[in-house]
Design a protein that fits this description.
The two termini are 21 Å apart. Helices cover 76% and strands 0% of the residues. With 161 residues, the chain is mainly alpha-helical. The protein has helices at residues 4-16, 21-64, 70-80, 86-91, 97-122, 129-151. It has six helices and no strands.
Length: 161
Amino acid sequence: MKDKARDEQLIEDARKFPELASMFEEMRGILEEFELHEEEAERRDRAEEEAEKKADEARAEKARAGELGPKWQEIQKRIDQGKTTLSDVFNGNDDSPEARALRQESNKTLGRIHDQWAKEAEEEDAENPLTQMRAAWEAHEERIRSLNNDLDVFPSWPDRN
């Protein structure tokens, strides 16, 4: 367990309350599992960031070559010159004509995608991203409820107040 003080507290509590030793051991296991999930999530986040970075560079290369059209080419030129960022283009901080046009196109595309996903989600399509997000969210909420229930067994737990 990463938190040595908490681990030592669990061991000490198990000694103080031998009749609850198995419960304290189970709690240690739950906390270790939680730490493993956190580490796994951090690894996934790093992998996703790397994949996004590669995808952004591929997009930038296509934009520089004009494969994405003249608006993208101009925007990429301005990004390369440090005059704007992709974030500024899409959050509205870049008010250039090209940026406004790309935002409009993007909003139309996102609207179509959302409408399609919403329709598919109504049909409970398992491959639909909205259905998948809903299922993941529900599973996440259930896991948190379960962990909270497990932690409530220990009202004098350090740092719980």
